[in-house]
Amino acid sequence: MKQLNSILAAFAKSQHNDQQVFLATVVNVQGSTYRQPGARMLITSTGKMVGTISGGCLENDVFEHTRVSMADGKPIVVTYDTTADEDIIWGFGLGCNGVVNVLIEPLNQDNLLNPLAFIHQCFYNQQQGIIATVIAVEGTVNVQVGARLILQSNNRANTDIQDKYLTAALLKDAQAALENKHSSFHQYQLAVGKVDIFIEFIKPPPHLIIFGAGRDSVPVAEFAKALGWRVTIVDCRGSEVTQERFVMADQVILTRREILHKQISIDDDTIAVVMTHNYLDDLEILKVLIPAAISYLGCLGSKQRTARLLQDLRTEGIECTPIQLQKLYTPVGIDIGADSPEAIALSIIAEIQAVLANRGGGFLKHRMEPIHERNQVNKIPINKL
Prior knowledge:
Number of strands: 17
Structural class: alpha/beta
């Protein structure tokens, strides 16, 4: 997420310099690869590159394609196949044993289908969306590689795909992807050919609210910002020094526990960590957070302390449901033997990342399944009636 934020900032800056810029996007992979579909890199005509699409092996070659393969200004898809042993001799020696498809396209700020402009809009408005991009065409279908359909969270769509039957089918699948909050790959089979489309789910960076402004909260905020998350600090002590301590945060709220509920906004994309070191503050904070639609709630402290907090909540008429308890992580963090503020912060952020990715947080050496989900292509026949 941090790389994507850097790409958005670099693109905005490039528009003031009147530079030609290109965007390289991983649009499909097979086998083992370093980056997954949706990974992006911005390239300027001067050779500056922001972001990565590999472990550093493909970037220079992609830049060369912007110089020699795109004279007509049309998007292209370049395939890097590292599954053959000969790749070590003639290719890039990636050692990943996979296939990577990279879409390279020139960018225009005024293009209504500019993917970076749309992603910026989603991030700015804290809304989700869909970018559906044509990545391969077979036959005589009237559509070009790089054509796309963009779907906003309010279901408003914009597209440059001319085939009305393909557009209708794609819009239906894009709406399903937006509802399911999941990217997918589709191959639309028409009478005159086939069209492969990457339907990418776009969501804003996670919003982490840290309740507590002690020194041990600082590395938690720093790690979160290093991942490109949005960070809000809530200080129930109302100390002015908090503003100076958390200059990296997007927002600092100085409040009192009695009025806390009036000053924070929570939705199902919010994640929160409670680390005030004050029992009464924690009690009031949990009154607000436990009933809320929240995706993750971590609470610093022992199991005994949490049990007492939950008992006091029950005494006040707040009975936690099984679903609410399932989202409560306490003691907070992954068991890595952390005993310093930095190590504890690392364990907390790692646990949040695992929860967001629906992973258990164990050792990869013990994982029997592939590290990344394999891309399944949905084949959709389109019959023109």
